[in-house]
Amino acid sequence: MSADKIKIGFIPLVDAAIPVITADLGFAAQEGLEIELVREVSWSNIRDRLIFGHFEAAHMLAPVAVASSLGLGAIKAPLAAPIALGLNGNAITLSPRLHDELFERLEPSANPADPYATGRAFAHLVRDRRARGDEPPVLGMTFPFSTHNYQLRLWLDQAGLDPDVDLRLAVSPPPFMVDALASGHVEGFCVGAPWNSLAVELGLGRILHLGVDLVRRCPEKVLAMRTGLLLERPELGAALIRACEKAAQWLSEPENREETAERLASSDRLDVPAEIIRRTLDGRLPIGDGRGERQADDYIMFDETRPDPRHARWLFEQMKRWGQANGSAAEAAETVYRPDLYDAALGRTPPSLTDDPLGLFTSARG
Amino acid sequence: MPDRPLKIALVEESPVRAEILEEGLRAVPEAQVVRIAEHANLLARIYALDPDVILIGLENPSRDVLEQMFQVSRIVRRPVGMFVDQTDRASIEAAVDAGVSAYVVDGLRKERVKSILDMTISRFNAFAKLRAELEQAKSQLEERKVVDRAKGILMRSKGIGEEQAYSLLRKVAMNEKKKIAEIAQSVITAAELLR
């Protein structure tokens, strides 16, 4: 029997590792699939080309899958997330100048990994700039419907700042984020791996927070498919879930990190040096300018693949909180995540769920 | 009642494709086309222009920047969306297939949107065809260069004429079921190794 040929669109990011490894290491072939990976330049393209059938599946921001299904910001098209492509992987990076400005205002005894403390210092900074009549900071994020947008807003909001009034958030696709910092278009950003580490390596930025400082278990990318295709060809969805799950298990073995970094580094994937990708896989990230490193074993996690509908609900709440959605579509949002398809494909019984699916600001407690 | 002048923002880096599109869109009555070629300050320029329609190629990473516009409603004077309404799905799909996306202000008459979209799609397809032809011409030229070099190598090393060298390449290509250019490339590679 010849293999089912499918196309998967992806954006150059470390969390595209599951589809990449699925395609590269025979996990797809074992399931009778032949995957062609298509590198894309924007999340808008990923969304539209999935919706209109150019791709069978896509590496997609979880909130984009939810927003498309609800008809927010684009054509309404029901998408499903039968498997999550891991959790976490983001960081907030500031230009050395903005980082210095913030640290000058940090309380002497404060833990710099505590987002409450850095938030207070940042609010102080924003007020000082306003008092001087200076421009407010501009921070980059990857898409209106992204966890990067919501993580920044979470941090700013608890500090008493209104992200739409007190400063500006500007969109830039991940691979262009470092350029945006270099050109002064933004003074900092929240983006996924490896782009924070590339900014650090080039001396353009310093990492202020790992994503886990703000959200311990943050939904990130999902493998999105059209609901219609899943209904028409349930065996295709099941095969992809199984292939991706095997890749996720393989990716979770520390001895496979070197090969993962090498494969992601190639010019048709991320086109970033392997050693920079490697640090993000190890969860050992130099902050920049010789200021030591941050360590977090859960900085990026590949084996957290079971879609948790409570993540979709949280994402919908963020959309409501920030005026992107209104009404009570929380249940419709939840149904985008399909743990039922995941469990069925893998022959597993539903696990008992953790009490707290997210873990907001847990780093401040430690 | 005549339509009021319609402003079309064309976010396009390639001057050739921009020219092809502008020429086509001039046929749309009362349309004014403004080209934005660079990424920097894209949103500010769009706000200043206040266009009715924005056209942008799918390969342009600034698409995501544009999408932010539909979120910050406090800044935008008129609501802009990618889709006039859900019934235009077929037009939008055709546009995405052609490699372009269109953002249209709310309330613009559907026939006008359709005529602009149809024109854009046909011009995008025309440009893609042009580019494919150019690529083909370029690769044919490259192939001819490779074959000429291989012929030269064969003529020198075997002391034969040009015609004989060519028929030798052709014979091997036929026997091995490969293109003449591929055989020619192997001759060049082998000659470089043996040098």
Automatic annotation (TrEMBL), chain A:
It comes from Hansschlegelia quercus. The lineage of its organism: Bacteria, Pseudomonadati, Pseudomonadota, Alphaproteobacteria, Hyphomicrobiales. This is Nitrate transporter. It holds the Pfam family NMT1_2. The keyword Transport applies. It is found in: Endomembrane system. InterPro entries: NrtA/CpmA_ABC-bd_dom. Keywords: Cell inner membrane, Cell membrane, Membrane, Transport. GO terms for cellular component: endomembrane system. SUPFAM superfamilies: Periplasmic binding protein-like II.
From TrEMBL, chain B:
GO terms for molecular function: RNA binding. InterPro entries: ANTAR, CheY-like_superfamily, Sig_transdc_resp-reg_antiterm, Sig_transdc_resp-reg_receiver, WH-like_DNA-bd_sf. Pfam families: ANTAR. Residues 124-151 form a coiled coil. One of its GO terms (biological process) is phosphorelay signal transduction system. Transmembrane segments: none annotated. Residues 7-121 form the Response regulatory domain. Residues 127-188 form the ANTAR domain. SUPFAM superfamilies: CheY-like (SSF52172). Keywords: Coiled coil. PROSITE patterns: ANTAR (PS50921), RESPONSE_REGULATORY (PS50110). It comes from the Bacteria. This is ANTAR domain-containing protein. It comes from Hansschlegelia quercus.
